[in-house]
Amino acid sequence: MKTNRKALLTSAALAAAAGLGAATALAQDGPIRIGVLEDQSGDFAAATMVKVHAIELAAKEINDAGGIAGRPVELVVYDTQSDNRRYQEFMRRVLQQDKVDVVFAGFSSASREAYRPIVNQFDGLAFYNNQYEGGVCDANMIVTGAVPEQQFSTLIPWMMETYGPKVYTLAADYNFGQISAEWVRQIVAENGGEMVGEEFIPLGVSQFSQTIQNIQATDADFVVTLLVGAAQASYYEQAASADVGLPMASSVNVGQGYEHKRFTPPSLKDMYVTTNYIEEIDTPASKAFVEKFRAMFPDEPYINQEAANSYIAMNLYKQMVERAGSTDHDAIRAELGKGDVCFDGPSGNVCLDPKSQHMSHTIFLAKVEADHSIAFPTVWENIAPYWLGDAGCDLTKNDPSAQYTPSSPPPAN
Amino acid sequence: MNDARTFAPEAAPRDRRSGLAVWLRRLEGPQTMGRGSLFWLAAGLALLAAAAYPQFSDDYTVGNAAYFLVWTFMAMGLGVVWGYGGALSFGQTAFFGLAGYAYGVLTINVGAAYGFTWLALILSVALGGAFALLIGYFMFFGRIRGVFIGIVTLSVTLVLETFMAQTAGPQWRIGEARLNGFNGMSGMPPLTLPWPGGDLVLYPGAQLYYALLAMVALCYLGLRMLLNAPFGNVLVAIRENPERAEMLGYDVRVYQMLAFGLGGALAGLSGALYTAWGQYITPSSMGLTSAALPIVWVAVGGRRDITATLLGTLLVLTAFQQLTIYGSQYALVAMGALLLFTVLLAPDGVVYTAMERLGRLGRPGRRAGR
Amino acid sequence: MTEILRVAGLNKAFGGVTVARDIDFALEAGAMHCLIGPNGAGKSSFFRLLLGEHAPDSGTITFRGEDITRLRPFQRIRRGMSVKFQVPGIFKALSVRQNLEVAFQNHLHGADLAATVERVLDFASLGDEAGTPAGVLSHGQQQWLEIGMAVGVEPQLLLLDEPTAGMSPDETRRTGEMLHALNARGITILAVEHDMAFVEQIAKRVTVLHFGAIFAEGSIAEMIAHEGVQRIYLGAADE
Amino acid sequence: MELAATLFSTAYQFGDAFAFLVISCAGLAVIFGMMGVINLAHGEFIMCGAYVTAATARAGLPLPLAILCGALVAGLVGMALERAVIRHLYHRPLDSIIATWGVSLIATQGVLIVLGSTMQGVGTPLGGVAVGDRSYSLYRLVLMGAAVALLAGLYWLFYRTRFGVVARATIERPQMARALGVDTRRVYGLTFGLGAALAGLAGGLYAPTMTMVPTMGATFMVESFVTVVVGGADIFVGAAPAAAILAAIRAGLTAWYGQLFGQIGLLVAVIVVIRILPGGLSAFIKRARR
After folding, report:
1. Residue C14 contacts D where some CB pair is shorter than 8 Å
2. How many degrees, rounded to 5, is the angle at CA B71 between CA A43 and CA B363?
């Protein structure tokens, strides 16, 4: 079955090769075209508008400094409306019609999985700049967002040490939530803790009275909240008004949807989040980034980790193209394979991992105070996305184009 | 006692024409717009233009056109159920999704060799149709009618969506195929034609376009014949006055159930083709927004006529995509405005009204004697 | 003569309202029979019970020797009943010809169907209107069209609910002639009617319903002379 | 003591689900039950009420007044919509579904464009109260009270006031009402406005407990529709018992099997009820009463 599919892919690639190959050769002297597919309307717009702005900022900086290897950067932007179908339509459009050299695309994991077969079919190159559940082992994808091992291997032990070993997980009932919960479970067990509860919430649920009681019925020391979307975010307000009073740990809040800015204090009090960037980070690089950003987009509500990732991704791409001397994907991946593609940006120094094509991060522990200001109790430098490589994904050797999870890891060979 | 066969012909000449001729005659008829050589000339030219156009276009545009064709089956199916049968289904996506997943599960497990993808397509469509028959039986034999049909069907599709969204875990697998929850199932092969000298893989592009174009044309003509056949007449009679139809001796429930099953099978065809097209299917394709879209296409195009439904769907799909490309944030606002505009100013549908204005094509019910 | 329809001990109540009370009723094949009674006497409900639109609380309905009490409406139609409602039950969006085709295609096909449609068009004086959407016919024409739809498929028993409601005197007279023609061809007719002149024109026997029960039965002359019948009609007129 | 705490907990969960269903469905029930219009923009009226409530509350208005403000604005918007669109569609119920869906699209995306993707909410007032070893949100107890008050208020409005009697008469026999000198258009307009205002009230009441985004109305939709459908056309006879039954189903399933089954159970309940009682609970109850 697997080989069969590969054969199909090859024949398709051959069919597409004529058109694409000619295009890249011709385009050698024109601008470098970058496709941007992000949700500027619909459910996810709150967190993703800023990604487009970050890419625009990076493009402007690159062009002001003379472009990539002397060629200007040109953005081809489409609004995907938080709709998976639009990703399918527009990924095809940017690769086939606009003939872009690289695509920056996707917020939700579903949208990524929707466009990934198309990127594979046309042998394109896509950057996914989102924090996600991890596990994508695909040579056509470069992931700059943080993954669970980076966020949970830091967060959970610290929380257990600080507050106690009893953990209650509250997760969105879909891939991200379930896989993240799996990671939490595993790390809690490794550190001698105890799961006192685990509850999954369907997307779109906004009423949490029963859940709040379930949590209170246990003697949890802290709650891991892996809730996603505007509806589920209503949990914090409801939990606060019911005086749950337990500290919360999360990989997804604050850094992405800036809930601490949107909700009335103190509903997020004592929430701890591991993130690779938020605008409150108090380093000179971060401050400079925020200043540049606000100069170009004065009304930007919040500069989140996805914005930083997108900005970093643009610069990583520039670096790889300049080193490779070409926008050819194999040449770019050859540079990536050397393992020294790094960038010192707003969130500190980050490097791409050749095996998984994911990115290392400086992980900041952000604590939300009672007035919703942010403190950083600790910082972990240079945390690698180790799991895929350890589990057997090695994109320098072969390309399974699959997504793995701890409970369904790559087949051992 | 007298012979009660009052009006029945005593010795009418038997109809000697072959079945095929009867069916071909039904390409024209009271339930469908368009008749006469002029109409068929126009239709033939349109088909010819559609067939020739890949020669003058690029791969992307042709692939995109193929993508639009994928959806027309679901729209035509809803046209039959809603426009002709009078039952507004809000849940065609349930059958769309079910067939889409079925195609995925079947082809991932069996593969694409020996043209199996086509068998998988047929099986998926049959499954979509069977499920629709079941739901139809449940509704129509349960005397559910009016807006409640919309609510039941919407509930069905939302249940499926909610359930599928949480099947992310590895325990949710059918054979080789992981359902993969909200992120969706991928990795199924596209439609593959066995071909001397190597299988022909129908990726979006000219080949898939031609395959779909042929399917759309066949399906369109087939529906025209069916709608002008006694089945179609009865369906319209039921829409107009179900009580009277029952009093003419028709089992209204059976007709409605069959129409619903047909609509479900066509939605399933779209679903399986969509999955094959993008090698991907998600629960969100059964969600509220997705469920509403076919209604929009059919309403804006015109539900009372299968030609208007087909053309309208293609028109709306194109317009919405262009709006999204060039209208950025304002696309959804424009779509909403388009809907309002249609309902208030052209309640029969934009294409339907335009066709009616065009006049020359003739309209149902205007023939004087035969 | 044989009995075509027998109703025995029929009862039906909606909540507190009894619409049929112990109705025993029989109809000879070939009869032309009228049901009369003041508004709310249960005439329409009785029809709906006969047709199976309502299920009776108790009692049986026998049609051509078969117990049809539990059959659904379309099954009764297929056994030879036919009905024309008070409100024209035609398909307004369809042409006159299509209305007839829909009415008959359950039984007839091809040339048989076409020939029958032509005959019925002729019978109902609608030959010139074959292509017209039924919704634009005059009221009387709509009634005739519906009678045509009801009789084209060889019914044994034709139920008519106020066939002349809203008709002009001339239309009423022609309707009466139409019914006599049908009856002469062997169709048993049971009609609900208000217009006593029309009842006199068509009916041999009359049954009077009152408060869901059979109040009196006999020839039209007997009924007109019947004191009780006069009383309930006058009483009804006072309302 | 332990028993009392458990009982309270169960009652609280039931009451919470009941309040949510009643409050979120009232506006839809008035519009659907009395006018036969399926209003897919119901969620957007809720959103409108919530936004106005949050804005006025943060501008310094006391919360109860702010909530009334939200209801009022939603009601006015509803009356305007009725005049511009709905009025033309009374005889075409299926078309009104499509039109209101168009309105909903315009409203959701329009708010996103004009006001941005998110808006700061107002915190939940009143805090918590401890019963046994668990604590509960006082505000949610207030919501339960509001739900009961809402039902009582609607009953009073429709059965004890002139407007209510005229409205019920108009909706049952429009021609007759017109012949008696009732301005039926005005009655329809007011009834629709009332439905919209009730939706706005729902938004205002729940604004302090939820995230404020343009799509927030969508989270109310399924629950409101389910309740209205199960209840049937008569909101007083139907909606309240429907909300009670569904609240029991939802609270029970959620407590025993988790949120997923709570959600799916609700949808399955609808399908089953429609199948067994096509007219909803109200038709069933009315028939049984006779």
Report:
1. yes
2. 120
- Is D2 strand, coil or helix? helix
Number of separate domains in chain C = 2
Three-state DSSP at A59 gives helix
Which two three-digit tokens encode residue D54? Answer: 């949050």
Q: What is the pTM of this model?
A: 0.83
Is C186 close to B6, i.e. CB distance below 8 A? Answer: yes
C94·B30 Cβ contact <8 A: yes
pLDDT tens string A347-386: 889 999 999 999 999 999 999 998 889 999 999 988 899 8
Nearest to A264 among D121, D135, D138 (CB): D121
- Highest mean pLDDT range out of A291-295, B325-329, D238-242? A291-295
Give the mean pLDDT of B149-161.
Answer: 84
CATH of domain D2-289: 1.10.3470
* Domain ranges, ordered by start, for chain B: 60-285
Among A308-312, C178-182, D180-184, the range scoring the smallest mean pLDDT is D180-184
Residue ranges of domains in chain A, CATH in brackets: 2-146+282-360+385-403 (3.40.50.2300), 149-250 (3.40.50.2300)
In this prediction the ipTM stands at 0.80
Residues 266-285 of A with CB under 8 A from D: 267
Of B147, B288, B342, the CB nearest to D38: B147
Neighbours of chain B (3+ CB pairs under 8 A): A, C, D
Q: Considering only alpha carbons, which residue of chain D is nearest residue C17?
A: D290
Burial of C6 (0-12, 13-18, 19+ CB in 10 A): middle
Q: Are residues C53 and C167 in the same domain?
A: yes
Co-location of C233 and C116 in the same domain: no
Give φ, ψ of C95 to 5 degrees: -75, 170
DSSP-derived secondary structure letter, A71: B
Q: End-to-end CA distance of chain B: give it in Å, rounded.
A: 36
Contact B330 D267 (CB under 8 A): no
pLDDT-derived band at B1 (thresholds 50, 70, 90) equals: very low
